[in-house]
Design brief:
This protein has twelve helices and no strands. By secondary structure, the protein is mostly helical.
């Protein structure tokens, strides 16, 4: 399986690129400079508090599913865990459609950008669809590569034991066990690829929204935004935590993934605070950079939610064997999407 440390090195490089692109975004379009709610000193205090509040909310959200093993009702093999996972999938789907994609369209259609080409072509949709297809490519190629690697390394055992007579008696049982083991290994591999790709999409989105909050000096909107983002990170963390749990990583890998998810939004806020004197969220460079990143992040989150989380669960044998369980799970999905839709009013 891919090394989480390698993936997170790529994420770190992405953070640096975001900083380089946005730090030079000077006040080319200062539509908010006369806003009476702008108060940098007061906003800075609120943003520092927000760093710790969002950090705690993120840690609680992503860690809750990881400690669910100690609660029999929330076991990954139980129906309750499946319903909760569908709720989390709805949250991630709602995040992509109701938060990230609309923000991308708003930024790339801003009056601060020239009419040509930004107002004449849906660049947000282009970024989203390319991101979704590239995510599918990474998803399938990574799964194929590590499946073949696992077979070469002998991950799936196909060895038999005992004398010839015993082997003849238990041949059918051994074949069944071998197929079951191979199926379990394949499913575990899918869970691990899904967890890594999902974290990448959420991390990109989280650092971008943190950057936007950190650069803002509008005290009228920051308080509500902090509350909404805390709830947003809590529920989104639950979705990611469920995927990490199913991936069955060792403690160190789980800790690395939890750490990166938890610190990305506070890290983005810190960058925004540091660059607040030069960064203008309405400057063309900032709008284009963040707008395209949001579009790409939306495509990734929508694909992961629909294909790797929801479709995979709803097409599973356990779900297909129970209409009642399907209806409960669909209700959970609608609750997740609905909750994130309501939050779109503030965040």
């Amino acid at each position: 399986m891919a090394n989480p440390v390698t993936m997170h090195k790529l994420i770190s490089i992405l953070f640096i690129l975001i900083t380089l692109f946005t730090s030079k975004a000077l006040a080319d379009c200062e539509s908010e400079s006369t806003n009476s709610c702008n108060n940098k000193e007061k906003a800075k205090t609120i943003k520092i508090i927000a760093i710790f509040v969002i950090l705690v909310a993120s840690m609680i959200g992503v860690c809750l599913p990881l400690v669910s093993r100690s609660v029999p009702t929330l076991s990954p093999d139980g129906n309750v865990f499946l319903i909760v996972k569908c709720f989390a999938g709805g949250i991630i789907l709602g995040t992509g459609f109701m938060h990230v994609l609309p923000d991308s369209f708003e930024m790339l259609r801003s009056d601060c950008l020239p009419e040509e080409p930004w107002h004449e072509f849906p660049f947000s949709g282009l970024a989203a669809v390319f991101s979704a297809v590239i995510t599918m490519m990474v998803d399938t190629v990574a799964t194929s590569y590590y499946s073949q690697k696992g077979k070469k390394d002998g991950t799936v055992s196909a060895e038999g034991g005992g004398d010839q007579e015993t082997g003849d008696v238990h041949a059918g049982h051994h074949h069944h066990f071998e197929m079951k083991t191979e199926g379990e290994e394949s499913q575990l591999l899918r869970y691990r690829v899904v967890a890594m790709v999902l974290e990448l999409g959420i991390v990109v989105h989280s650092v971008v929204i943190g950057l936007s909050l950190g650069a803002s000096s509008n005290t009228c909107s920051i308080k509500g935004l902090v509350a909404a983002l805390s709830a947003h990170q809590l529920f989104e963390g639950m979705g990611l935590g469920g995927s990490i749990l199913q991936a069955q990583y060792k403690f160190l890998k789980k800790a690395i993934m939890v750490f990166f998810f938890s610190v990305t939004t506070p890290f983005g806020i810190s960058i925004g605070i540091a660059m607040s004197s030069t960064y203008q969220e309405n400057s063309p460079k900032a709008l284009i950079t963040v707008g395209l990143l949001n579009g790409a992040s939306a495509g990734l989150l929508i694909y992961m939610a629909l294909v790797d989380l929801l479709a995979a669960d709803f097409m599973s044998k356990r779900m297909q064997s129970s209409i009642k369980l399907q209806l409960k799970s669909y209700m959970a999905v609608f609750l997740g999407v609905g909750g994130m839709s309501l939050m779109a009013k503030w965040a």
